[in-house]
């Protein structure tokens, strides 16, 4: 049993980038090795977090979307953020605010600061059983980041809704009723299981995969589904060598024990009458509620090196370490 748990913890680390001890202590025999979000509210919350992380990823980050590692629990998720600059980007995108008229609202509706601790900052949606921890930086840094967002909010004449009251404000309730109750919102929620699951495994792209740059966005629907079809999430991944590393990444994402229940969406190629380019792969589920499109490339990373030499050096060291592990594992025993 000890050997089994140790192997399971080591494998989990490939997806979460946690320390072995933390991964090992988090395993439960009655849970999946990487537990899914428990309950509809937490699942939808994490899907919204994933969406906002992609929207505010404008920097050249060392780790995937600026998240060094994750710690998934059934009722909570911890994201370890790589830098103060990224922390300001994230809080600036997450924390809700509205214009003077209360008609336009930015950020995650209902999001509030639960508490600051030595661990980091905890966020939740008011009135819901939700929890997100942002960690990796000293408490003073998180407070400074929030203060910076507050100052920027006031500077443009907007109101910081996350500080006004615990309950949802009138602008948030009105914005929710107007924009988040239609078919598109229902499709987002239907696929939240896999968006949340992908967020809980996001370090896979830099722990095991030698991805140099990963960017992403929410794409337009594609032909081949009934109605709108699932929300199409696109990840653009730059590798030193596409073919071998793309195959390995897909194998781990679709692993029956640690991955997600996704498979190549070959039915889309049949319905569209032509194959996709070899550098594009689409994965979906049997219920057709989630669609992940990965676009693999080489060379994008080189365009960032001159402007970000220090970050590029750290990324290259990480990539070299991953490639060295791959090479060591591929050498046959003598």
Offer a concise description of the structure.
The chain is an alpha+beta fold and 334 residues long.
Mean pLDDT: 93
Structural class: alpha+beta
Strand order of the largest sheet: 1-2-7-6-5
Strand content: 15-25%
Low-confidence stretches: none
Give the helices and strands as they follow along the chain. HHHEEHEEEEEHEHHHHHEEHEHEEHH
Describe this structure in words.
The chain has 334 residues and is α+β, with helices and mostly antiparallel strands. 43% of the residues lie in helices and 19% in strands. It has 14 helices and 13 strands. A 5-stranded mixed sheet has the order 1-2-7-6-5. Strands 9-10-13-12-11 form a 5-stranded mixed sheet. Strands 4-3-8 form a 3-stranded antiparallel sheet. The longest helix has 22 residues, at 309-330. It is globular, with a radius of gyration of 20 Å. The mean pLDDT is 93.
List the SSEs and their pairings.
Elements: H1 2-16, H2 20-26, H3 40-55, E1 67-73, E2 76-81, H4 84-94, E3 97-98, E4 105-106, E5 111-116, E6 120-125, E7 132-135, H5 139-155, E8 159-160, H6 161-164, H7 170-179, H8 183-190, H9 192-199, H10 204-207, E9 213-219, E10 232-238, H11 242-253, E11 263-264, H12 266-272, E12 280-284, E13 291-297, H13 302-305, H14 309-330
Parallel strand pairs: 2-7, 10-13
Antiparallel strand pairs: 1-2, 3-4, 3-8, 5-6, 6-7, 9-10, 11-12, 12-13
């Amino acid at each position: 049993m000890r050997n089994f748990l140790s192997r399971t913890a080591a494998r989990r680390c490939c997806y979460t980038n946690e320390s072995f001890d933390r991964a090992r202590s988090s395993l439960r025999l009655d849970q999946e090795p990487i537990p899914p979000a428990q309950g509809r509210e937490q699942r939808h919350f994490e899907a919204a977090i994933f969406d906002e992380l992609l929207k505010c990823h404008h920097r050249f980050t060392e780790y995937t979307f600026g998240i060094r590692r994750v710690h998934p629990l059934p009722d909570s998720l911890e994201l370890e953020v790589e830098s103060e600059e990224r922390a300001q980007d994230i809080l600036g995108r997450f924390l809700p605010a509205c214009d003077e008229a209360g008609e336009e609202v930015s950020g995650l509706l209902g999001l509030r600061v639960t508490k600051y601790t030595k661990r980091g900052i905890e966020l939740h949606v008011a009135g819901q059983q939700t929890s997100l921890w942002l960690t990796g930086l000293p408490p003073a840094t998180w407070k400074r980041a929030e203060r910076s967002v507050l100052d920027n909010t006031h500077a443009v004449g907007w109101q910081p809704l996350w500080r006004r009251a615990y309950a949802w404000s009138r602008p948030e309730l009105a914005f929710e009723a107007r924009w988040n109750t239609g078919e598109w919102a229902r499709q987002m929620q239907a696929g939240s299981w896999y968006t949340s699951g992908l967020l809980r495994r996001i370090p896979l792209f830099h722990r095991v995969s030698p991805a140099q740059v990963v960017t992403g966005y929410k794409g337009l629907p594609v032909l081949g589904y009934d109605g709108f079809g699932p929300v199409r999430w696109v990840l653009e991944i730059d590798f030193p060598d596409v073919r071998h590393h793309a195959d390995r990444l897909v194998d781990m994402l679709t692993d029956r024990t640690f991955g997600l229940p996704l498979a190549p969406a070959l039915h889309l190629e049949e319905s569209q009458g032509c194959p996709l380019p070899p550098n594009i792969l689409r994965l979906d589920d049997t219920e057709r509620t989630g669609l992940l499109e990965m676009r693999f490339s080489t060379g994008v990373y080189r365009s960032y090196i001159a402007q970000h030499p220090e970050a590029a050096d750290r990324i290259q060291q990480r990539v070299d370490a991953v490639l060295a592990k791959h090479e060591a594992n591929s050498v046959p025993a003598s």
